[in-house]
Fold:
Amino acid sequence: MQILEARNLKKFYREKGREVEAVRDVSLTLAAGEILAFLGPNGAGKTTSIKMIAGLIRPDDGWVRICDRDPHHQPQALKLLGAVLEGNRNVYWRYTPEENLEYFGVLRGMSQNAARKRAADLLERFNLAHKRRALVQSLSRGMQQKLAIAVSLMHQPSLLLLDEPTLGLDVEATEDVKRLVREIVQEGCAILLTTHQLAIAEELSNRVAIINKGEIVTEETTDELIRQFSGSAYVIETERPIDAERVRKLHLLGLECATSRTIHVADAPMLYQVLAILKPLPILQIQKDQANLTDVFLKLVRGDEA
Amino acid sequence: MITIFWAELKRQWIQQRRYALDSIAGILGIAVAFYGFFLTTKYAAGPAAQFGDRLDSIVVGYALWSLVTFIIADIAGGLQQEAFTGTLEQLFLSPFSPAKIFLTRALARLTVILVQIFGILLILMAVTGRFLSFTPTLLLPLVTVILGAFGIALAMGGLSLLVKQVQQILGFLPFGLFLAMLVPVETWEMPARLVGWLLPMTPGAGVLRELMARNQALDWGQLAIAFLNGGIYFAIGLALFKQAERIAKLRGRIGGY
Structure:
C-alpha cells in the first residue's frame, strides 16, 4: 500500500537578491512497512524536501500525497504523519515525558483518555516508564530522542519522518533507536529516514534515494544499489600458506597470490577453478568485493561534482 | 476544540504550579510597579489632591493593561520562544490550524491570567483603599477588550513568524497599550470620540471604567461599539496571522530564522 507519493517537488529561495534552487525536481514514493533512506550532503535539499512533505514548507511546484491526502490543503493528512526533525527539541523540556506525550497526543487529534493510555504504553515500550515524571531537561540525550520518537508515534501515523534520529547519540542509545525503528516499520509504518551515518542507513533501509544539489541522483533498493557498485572479484584467504605447486597452477590461470595466504579472483566462474586447485587446503574465508553505502554515496556525490 | 482547551489549561496549570515563584513574582512585580506609580503621582499632586473616581479609573486601566500585555506577550513572545527552542514545527504538524492552537492556548492562559489579575486587583484595592464594584455585566465589555487583545496578539504572533526582531516591537507595545487602556474616550466629545472608537480596545476599556469606577449603568450603545471594535481588531489580527503563516511556509521560515 502506497503511503507517500511526492512528485516533482521544487523550491526556490531568494537570497541576497538572487534566486537559489534548494530543491529542483524531487519525486519520492514510500510503501507501508518500508524504510527509505534519504541521503545527501549538507545543503543538498533533504530537510527542505522533508518539510515540504510534512506541509511545513510550501513547494513552488509539484505535489505531496500522504495516503492520497494533501498535507498542504487537507489538515486531516497531518493525522497520518509523525515527524522528528533535526536541530529541534521536538518536545517541551520543562515538562515530563508523560505530560509531553499526552499533550501532543491531544494536539494530534486524540481524546485525553486515549492519549493517556497510549502514553503509558509508549513509555513502557520505549523504556521510559521510570522517567515518566522527570523533567525532560534532566534526561539524557538518548532518552530525549526516544521521547521525541514516542511523541511522533502517539497518534499511530502511517508515515514517520525521521531526520537524523541518531545524531549525537552514544552507542547504546543508537542501538535502542535502531531497534525501535525496526519495530515501528514491522508494524506497517512507512519511514523516511535521513542520516549522515551511512552504516545505519544501510542497516535499516529497504531503499535508498540520494539527493545532491537539489536533485535525486539515484533511487534503488539498498541491496541493488550496493550490488551495482560492488565489483565481481573475490578474495580467498587460506588458513595455511599456499604451497609452490599450487602457486604454479594458479599462475597458469593468470593469478598471482597477494600474500602467501591470500589470492584475488576476478569472477565467479574462475572462483571454482581456484577452489579446485586449493582443495583440500582449509579455507579461512571467501569474501566478495562488496561496496558499502559510504562507497556508493561518495562515488555518486563526488561523481556528480566532477 | 474543548479537548485542546483542557490540554492547554492542564499545561498552563502545570507550568504555574511548577514555576510558582515566577507566577508570584509576576503578580507582585505588577502590583509593586503600580504602587510606585501611585505614590509618585500622589507625591507630585501634593497632599491636598483628591483623585476620586480618577484613581478608580486608573486602577481599572492598569489592571486591564496588565491583562492585555500578558495576552500579547504570551502569544507573540511564546511563538517566538517556541521557534527558538524548536517545538514550533511540532505545533504546525497538528491537524488543528496554528491559529486555533494559539487562540486556544491564549484562552487557557487567559483563564489563568484572570485569576492572577483578580489577585492583582485585590492587592491594588488594598493598597489604594479604593474598592471597585464587580457585577456579571462586567464580563461583556471585558470580552470586547479581550477580543481586541487577541487580535493584536495574533497580528504580533504572525509578525514574529516572519521577523526575528519582533521582541523590540513587543518592548514598545506596552506603552501604546497603556495609552489605549487609559484614554478616557467615553468623556470625549464628537468628533474626537469617533477617533477614540477606532483605537484598539479603548471603547471596551471605557465601558469597563464607567461600570467599575463610576458605578454607572451599562450603556448598550457603547457596548455595541466596543464589540464592533473588538470584533474588527480580532478579525484583522486573525487574517494577518493566516497571511503570515502562508508567507512563512512559502519562505520556509517556520521553526527557525
